[in-house]
Amino acid sequence: MIDLGISKMALIGAVALIVIGPEKLPRVARTVGTLLGKAQRYVSDVKAEVNRAMDLDELKKMKETVEEAGREVEKGIYTTKADFEKDWNDVTTGLDGSTSAADHAASGSAAWSPPPPEYRRPDKNWRLKRGATPQWYKARQGVRRQVQSGAARVARYRPRRPGA
């Protein structure tokens, strides 16, 4: 970059004082300072944009690696599932009822029991219904059940005149 030492700055200032003159020098110095500030802001904005672009590239690479790892895990799960189902079918082939009761007694297994009942999801709004407040309680406590306009609310809560 440019090497500007104190001696060079003093030389530039002296030349500017002679060329520009003492009356216009403060205004020119202010203008130069403003332009330098704008240039510095522009350079910092460009640097920030470049950094954001670099971070975005890094995030894209990280996303790709995470997606690849997810695909590998999913593939591993499917192969494990297939192996488990094959092993399960191999083990349970003799348990479909073709064996005799003597075989079960000899092997020490208990009598056959039916499978547990299937899961049945509760009704759609069971939490809402269970937690609903009864209407008589709302009426007693003064809970609003309907929307009321601003004018109706003012009319309802306006103090009554003593003579009316």
From TrEMBL:
Topology class, membrane: Single-pass membrane protein
Statement: the UniProt record of this protein carries the keyword Ion transport: no
A biological process term (GO) from this entry: protein transport by the Tat complex
Region (Disordered): 89-164
Keyword field: Cell inner membrane, Cell membrane, Membrane, Protein transport, Translocation, Transmembrane, Transmembrane helix, Transport
Record field: compositional bias (Basic residues): 155-164
Main location: membrane
Bias (Low complexity): 98-112
Annotated GO MF terms: protein transmembrane transporter activity
Matches recorded under HAMAP family: TatB
Family the UniProt entry places it in: Belongs to the TatB family.
PANTHER family for the chain: SEC-INDEPENDENT PROTEIN TRANSLOCASE PROTEIN TATA, CHLOROPLASTIC
Binding partners and assembly: The Tat system comprises two distinct complexes: a TatABC complex, containing multiple copies of TatA, TatB and TatC subunits, and a separate TatA complex, containing only TatA subunits. Substrates initially bind to the TatABC complex, which probably triggers association of the separate TatA complex to form the active translocon.
Name of this protein: Sec-independent protein translocase protein TatB
Source organism of the structure: Ottowia oryzae
Gene (name only): tatB
